[in-house]
Amino acid sequence: MNSIVLNIALPLLVAFLLPLIHASSRIAARITGPLVLMVMMWSAVIVFKALEYPVSIALGGFLPPVGVSFHLDQLALLMATIIPLLMLLLWPYQYEQNLREQTVLLLLAAASSGLALSGDLFNIYVFYELISVASFGLAAANRQASSFAAAFRYLLISGLGTVLALTGIALIYTQTGTLNLAQLGLLSSRLDNPLGLSAFALILLGIGVKAEIFPLNGWVAEVYSTASTRTSALLAGLVSKLAVLAIVRILVVAYDDSEAGLMLLVFGVLGIIWGEFSAWRAQDLKRMFAYSSIGQLGMILLAFSIPGEAGMFAGIAMMLHHLVVKPALFLLTEKWNHGTDSLRGAARLSPLAAALFVLFALSLIGVPPLPGFWAKMLLMSGLVGMDTSVYYIALAVLMIATVVEAQYLIRIAVTLYSASDRSSELRLASNTGVMSLFAVVLLSALLTLTPLGSKLYHIAAESSNRALYIRTTFNVNPTPVLEHKNATQEASL
Amino acid sequence: MNFLDGLLILSLLSVIVTGFAQKLRSAGWLSSVLLGLQCLLLMGMAGLAYGSPAVSSSFSVSVLGQPLHWQFNALSWFFALITLASALASSVYAAGAWGEDYRLQGGNPGLLQFALNLNVFAMLLLLASGDLLSLFVGWELVSWASLLMMVLAGGAAGRFGLRYIVYATAGAMAVMTGLVMIFQLTGSFQFADFAAIAPSLSNAQVVTFTLLFVFGFGVKMGLLPFHLWQADAYAETPGPGAAFLGAISSRMGLFAMLILVIQLIGLGRLINIEVPYSFFSLRDVLMWVAAFTIIFPTFTAMRQNDARLLLAWHGIGQGGYMLMGLLMVNPLGSAGGLMHVFNYASYQAVLFLVVTAVIYRTRTADLNQLGGLVTRMPLSFLMMLICIIGLAGIPPMNGFVSKWLIYRSLIVEGMPLLFVASVVGTLGTILSVYKLIHNTFLGQLRLEHEQIREVPWSMMIPMLILSAVVFITGFLPGIVLDWVASAQAALGIPVLEHTLGGVESPSGNLDMIWICSVLFGGFAVGALVFYSGNKSRRVHQLDNYAGGHFLTADDRYHYSNNFYAGLMHHIGHWYRGTFQWLESSLGSAISLLSAATQMLFNSFHPALFLLLAATLSLLFFAG
Predict the structure, then answer these.
(1) Which residues span the domain enclosing A381?
(2) Could you give the number of structural domains in chain A?
């Protein structure tokens, strides 16, 4: 179990060693990165397979709530497996001068794994900061004036967000005297007051910058349309999900049945409206996907705002679906003309690329029997299950947003397939090999829907179980008596 | 493995085969053979229409713990028969000379055949659905498959297809909401579980479900006010495709509505729910929606100058008759509604095919650019005549029987206003189909059409067979009424008592054999008088005189433009385009909203938003 620490330590170490390796051998430098990612994946899979029930790891032998603790449950390990996998797919293999980018990517891999596994607020904050630093580097990596400008604006808002998050964490510390998530779970009654909720709001907004939460997503369209496609795919596909996951962990463990979930709902709904409607008008393909990704993140947030297993199940399903489809769309359209009108008739010479686009678009809209449909159905079913007017309003917004989404995505598809009125034939440059891989993933998810569904349900049930989380760390049950006991523990801190 | 398994598997195979064989020159015939085989398998299940128990497929899948399975009963069989027959006719029509011509025009007939097979497969899957989940999967497949058919032509078709998919997605969302609500209530997607709790639903729940499903499925039917997409989209579809879509595609909405609203919720509940501050029940409201769906699109059809648009607008209106009939408790009405699905499909397919034949020869469907083709394409004329008589609901064609059933039940149930409304609709139909046949086949022949010949046999045969169906099922409506009665039984509604010649029930009698005999006897007398009189002399069609002057072919005296000027003088100002206006203002509102959202993204620094959001949420929690 403890070998999972390798997933953070190894890429971090190699990231700093990479320039040295490069100096001695170019070929070694080229294969090091992918090798590290493969090792990470292997180690995550091994632990995932061996894991029967959630485990808490106390680093350096300091028992929680004092030391640095990792919380290993299926959700964390799933993310820890996906991180290197996605990075391997998006690794810059074919570029020569990419040492810095590779370094930054390894840094991102380490920080992301750390964020997924962390069991306390302090580490979440540290790894989140590390992700920020890495993503600034990535956003500016193609060294154009526009991407520098975008990265700078991104840095600015992200920095502000960090300050807010830190303030929130400080508030929590003053209220409870601890930053360990499980301990916060035991003391959650102390957070169910205006101050505690304000702390959550600040953390949500701070971390929400990365999660593309409305209204902190002004940077999204700009960065995604200027940065390299792989960066956009990583930021939209992976980093945003990790940020959401961090928020959800805090919500589930420390803010169980409080108003905090409602806040997620409000931001989610606003995000859906903003993202989808902006995408409707977008004339530039990359911007359209950027806006649409804001809308999708809103839906994911909406899913997580539903308390209990149903919400967690829907959220994880939506998240994984978006994690496959969004990077796929970004990659597929990497070298297409950005203007949507110039794609007219492109399907004739590039039938595979166009067909893949349609497949991903349909799944994103949620057309049965594609996986996106089942995820959306879980979400709708969860919303209806709440049977509260707020959730019905959210459902109505979701319905309208889906119609808007269908309109702009199918508009592109129709453009691709419409007859070309120009003499010059357009061939879409796209990396259909990798893309077909994504399509295979999507379709195999379709074929294995039943086992996949039950697996995800188990993951959701486990990670939405607050008591289990606390028991894993302290081996105690969260009862009022124990809360008293921990209050004395806190005094000794 | 039973016939249903065979049918579904063969249908899927046909999709795959035609998908790969698109480039093949004989792709059309291949597709026709495959569709013919499917028809044979369907015939193997013909027992369903005569009282055999429902057939279940031997395979089923389970997703997220919810089983999906498929089955066929008399209702599914009835709809599947119409689907496969019209698909087969369209496929044969497109396989021969028309397909070759379509290829020369730059189209891909193989792709058309593929789209046809895909639509058939999707529809069979929908018709065979054995639970709510498989129903929705089938429903969505049907929606998206018909999009493929609609956008084949490219150009404006793409725009209309896009418009369709916006409506369809909105409908699908409504249906999906209804389904997850049912799931939350019953914990399953099985029809039986929903039917079990349906009597205990509160009135508010019944209203919610009814509105969601009528909206969701009604969009596909072109129910007012969600009808705007249909005419343009169908008219732009390549000819045989339009015939197929026009004949059956919209009826899938009716099928799904039948299952959910009439079979599962039940008309009884709808009748018992009063609309506040009025003397209407929920059922009456739906019937009036159906009545307006008959009237408005039919009178819109009358003003069209494109033959395809004229027919497509009619398709919307005829859907209203079906729904109106099926909303009646009386077995006459529901039988009329179901029979109208069959009858309408038979003549609408032929009408689209005849118009396509005219386009094939003349390259235009503009009703102001045609005329006098009766001597050039006499068989096509005859078939159009048969089918417009059917469409207008005049004896001896089958359309008369179904409309008579609906009228009769309206009278029996005491709904005079609805009766008047449907008669007004029929009046509009008669006027516009007369315009269609007059402007196309009657009157003055254009000089450029003088050398035109009748269309080839590959196009003629499917039309001939379908027109024969229109006549035979009008003469012997009992053939179809057998199937309809079994479908009624499958739906669990009162069954019509019928004979081979028509209806024999306490609420009304109709014997088409008798009516046709009298009618044709009359014709025989007339013919006798005509041919025993003076010998007539045949003159050439362009050999015309008026007021003692010879009229050359350059003198246009064929009255086609602004056809019903006198009528329009009275009712013309009622055409206000209100629905168009509503649709475009909705579009503008969305456009405005999205401009506003984008502007907010572009004009302020995101950090401002961050601070604003932080302040607001702190206020929210602290205040």
Answers:
(1) 259-447
(2) 1
